[in-house]
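Open question from group meeting: does this chain pack into something compact, or does most of it stay loose? Before anyone orders reagents, we agreed to write out a predicted structure and look at it together. Recording both the input and the output here so the notebook holds the full record.
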Amino acid sequence: MFPGQGSQKPGMGAPWVATPSWAAVGVVSAVLGRDVEHLLLDADAATLQATRNAQVASFALGLVILDAARAAGLHWDAAAGHSLGEYTALVAAGVLDVEDAARLVGERAEAMQDAADAAPGTMAAVLGLDTDAVQACCDAAHAWIANDNAPGQIVVAGTAEAVSAAGAAARERGAKVMALAVGGAFHTPLMAAAQGRLDAAIAVAPFRDTVIPVVANVDATAHGAAGDWQGLLSAQLCSPVRWREGVTSLGRLGVTRLLELGPGGVLSGLAKRIAPELERLSLATPDDVAAIA
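Structure tokens returned:
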């Protein structure tokens, strides 16, 4: 499992800089013509919050940890990624090579940054309500559900005013509401301005059939055919991430152990709420990889 935007933090690449897997950062930097190493080692929290930086940095670190896990002899039978993390999952499953995935992520990051600048928005986590209750709060406020993350943990998005109103309605129902440090209203119609640029990049990407099934955000279903991903990644931009259902789908595939490759352990925490019977392991540092291997 690969986390998405929002898991990034300053200095998150530091534990990896002396490892052979750090070479993946150079590959992404060369493809995008950007100093990705600076983002992973030196950028402050405000810099990393910007969409064009957060997505590239998070993707690059995911590739570093993926390479280290492979080198340590770890194997997996399925993959999934949360939002941006879906692109890293496609690399893990053999659907995209590193260079082609980096090009897609770079285009996605820039397109979403431009869309967020043109139609500013924000996101907030609503804790303690079910999906129907949160949907009712969103409907009254002209906001949207962006991520169905876990039982009692749903992210809403929209304009600042709409998210504030939805949050107020949720609090009246007894929920706790937490603002998220993100640069836009992702997975909502406010991202529509990014659709054309992303679709153009997806249209020329050389997708391959998966080596292992990948559970998609859009429909929480396992996919293996190369031809599925153009439509799935396009739809993902403005559609909610169905993570709760996706983890359940992993369990139905026979998965018993979840490896989270990325900083923070957010997805492991969500999985504990969704499917506590599944073993959860977080790989955020070289020591984590060595211990698990």
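Observations to bring back to the group:
The chain is about 45% helix and 15% strand.
The longest strand covers residues 144-150.
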